[in-house]
Specification:
alpha+beta, 4-stranded mixed beta sheet, two-stranded antiparallel sheet, 6 strands, 35% helix
């Protein structure tokens, strides 16, 4: 069984994680939030609940600020502490809109999550 939200379909067992991430990221980033995209096996249809992790790309208007990064770090700490089998098996990459449009070798982006 799967769950569908606007432009996203994912297995029901990861719904609590996806919803917590989406709500928390929107709150932490405010107007800097542009989009939230599933990637990896979730996006390609190969997600296996026993072996896969949850990969997400968050696009921001501007690079994540230190204040936003602190709020995101606290969000990820709260999520990891929750009772959810995927709470420690996910990764979120934060990339600003300009970097999504143009890849520059060696450029680094914030990544948070637990594996």
């Amino acid at each position: 069984m799967s769950v569908t939200t606007p432009n996203m379909t994912y297995p029901r067992e990861i719904a609590p994680l996806i919803e917590a991430l989406l709500d928390g990221v929107r709150e932490a980033l405010g107007e800097n939030f542009v989009g939230f995209y599933l990637r990896g096996s979730l996006a390609l249809g190969g997600f296996n609940p026993e072996t896969s992790d949850v990969d997400v790309l968050v696009v921001t208007e501007q690079p994540v600020s230190e204040t936003e990064f602190g709020a995101l770090d606290r969000l990820h700490t709260r999520i990891a502490a929750r009772e959810n089998e995927y709470g420690c098996h996910y990764e979120v990459s934060y990339v600003d809109r300009a970097a999504v449009k143009r890849f520059e070798p060696g450029q680094r982006h914030h990544r948070l999550g637990w594996r």
